[in-house]
Design goal:
The structure is a homodimer of 237-residue chains. Chain A is of the alpha+beta class and 237 residues long. Chain A has 6 helices and 9 strands, in the order βαβαααββαββββαβ.
C-alpha cells in the first residue's frame, strides 16, 4: 500500500527580488520539519520574483501585432491587455497558432526556462539541505493549458533531486500483461497534486509532498527538461 | 492551510464481468471507513472489466492497415502487436496522425466513453452511498500521453459528485492582480494525484483521496465530458 500526502506552507511573506527562498521556506515552516524524501513544490511565480524576473506591465509598450492580437481576443469575448500579449510575444520563439483569442506559442520557457529552472531548483535544494540537513527534492511548477482538454494543470518546469519520469516500458504486470500506462510523468503528477493542496487565492506558493521518496534521488538529476518532447517529435505540428 | 492525502486500497480481488465494484471496494476497505467529501478514484481498466468491456486479443483479426501500422511502429523501434492496433482503430472515430510508430486518434472514448463514464461513475457512487452512507465523489481515470511533453498522466474520463473544473476566470488575487492560472482542471489533477498513491505494478486500481471536499457536490453533476475541448476549439487541428 502506497500513500501520498501534501500540505501547503502558510505564512510565506511577499517575495522580493534577492530573497533567498530556501530561508523563507524554512522560516515559514515554523518548526514543521522537512524529512528526507519529501518533495518541496514551489510555484514558478515566487521563484521568478526572488530572481527579479518579474515584468512590470506599466513599462511595456505593445507592438502593433500585440495590439491586433489583443483586439482579436477581445472580439472573441476575452479580456486581454495588449501589454500582456507583448510580454508573451517577447518570451516566445515562435507563435504556432493565433486564432479566436487563443495564442499557442513555443516559449523560451520550454527551453531556456527548463534550463534556468534546473539551476533555480538546484540552488533552492542546496539551501534547504544546508539549513535543515534534509535531502528533499525541489520541484518548480507552472500552469499550462492542454490541447484537447479544458482547464489548466500545473506541470514541473524545474526539478532537482527527483526523477521526472517513471519508466515501465516493456514491463508487464503480475499476470504477464503489458502495463496500461508505462511511462509516467511523475514530476508533472506531483506538480498537479501540489496545486490541489492549496486554495487558489490563499497565497500558498509552497507545498510539501510526502510519499514520493521512491522517486527522490541523491543526485540533482536531469531536471524537468527531460519532460519536454523534442521539437522533431512534437505531435502538435 | 489546505492539505491533500491519498491512500490506495489493497486487497481488491481480480475483477470479473458482472462484479459490483462498489461492493468489492467496501469489502477491500476492510473497515477503513469512507467519509463524506472523499473522492474514490478508480482505474478505468477495472470498471471496464466489471462491465464486460474487455477485448480478448486472441479473438482479434488485424486488418491490412493495422498490420502496416504495427510494422511502422516496429521499424521505429517499438514493440507493437497488430491486434492491439486493430483494437485502437476499432475504437477510433478518426486517425489524426500516424507516424514513427505513434498513433494519434480521436477515440470514441472522448465522446462515447465520457458519457459511458458518467453512467459508471454515478452507479458506483450510488452503490457506495447505499453501502456506507457516505457522500463521496467517484472519479474514473485513464492514462493519456501529451502533445508537448513526454510521459503519461492519468486524467478523469468518468466523474460523479465532483466539479471537474474550478473556475477563477476574471478573479484577482489578494493584491488585485489577475490570477496566474484561472481555470483549474481539478478532476484531472485528482486523477494524477491518485496515480502517485499506488506503486505501478501493485494492482491497486482504487485510491481514496481526502482534502478535496470543496469540489465534492451533492448532485452527480455534469461529469468528465466538461473537460473535453469541443472539436471546433481543438487546438491540435
Amino acid at each position: 500500500v502506497a500513500s501520498l500526502s501534501a500540505r501547503s506552507v502558510s505564512g510565506l511573506p511577499e517575495v522580493r527580488a534577492g530573497d533567498e527562498l530556501a530561508a523563507l521556506i524554512v522560516t515559514a515552516l515554523d518548526g514543521d520539519e522537512l524529512r528526507d524524501g519529501e518533495v518541496v513544490a514551489i510555484a514558478h511565480k515566487v521563484v521568478s520574483k526572488s530572481e527579479g524576473a518579474i515584468v512590470a506591465l506599466a513599462g511595456v509598450s505593445p507592438s502593433e501585432r500585440a495590439v491586433e492580437l489583443a483586439a482579436d481576443a477581445v472580439a472573441a469575448g476575452q479580456d486581454r491587455d495588449p501589454r500582456m500579449v507583448q510580454v508573451v510575444l517577447d518570451e516566445s520563439l515562435e507563435v504556432l497558432r493565433a486564432e479566436r483569442g487563443v495564442l499557442i506559442c513555443r516559449t523560451r520557457q520550454g527551453f531556456v526556462c527548463a534550463n534556468a529552472g534546473v539551476a533555480s531548483a538546484r540552488r533552492i535544494r542546496g539551501g534547504l539541505r544546508e539549513l535543515t540537513g534534509a535531502s528533499v527534492a525541489v520541484l518548480i511548477s507552472d500552469s499550462f493549458g492542454r490541447a484537447w482538454r479544458h482547464g489548466q494543470l500545473d506541470v514541473a518546469i524545474g526539478l532537482a533531486g527527483m526523477q521526472p519520469l517513471d519508466d515501465w516500458r516493456g514491463r508487464t504486470d503480475a499476470s504477464g500483461l503489458e502495463l496500461r500506462a508505462t511511462w509516467l510523468a511523475v514530476a508533472d503528477a506531483a506538480a498537479a497534486s501540489a496545486d490541489l493542496a492549496r486554495v487558489k487565492d490563499s497565497r500558498e506558493p509552497v507545498v510539501v509532498i510526502d510519499g514520493l521518496g521512491r522517486f527522490v534521488t541523491d543526485e540533482d538529476g536531469p531536471g524537468a527538461a527531460e519532460l519536454l518532447r523534442p521539437l522533431q517529435e512534437d505531435l502538435f505540428r
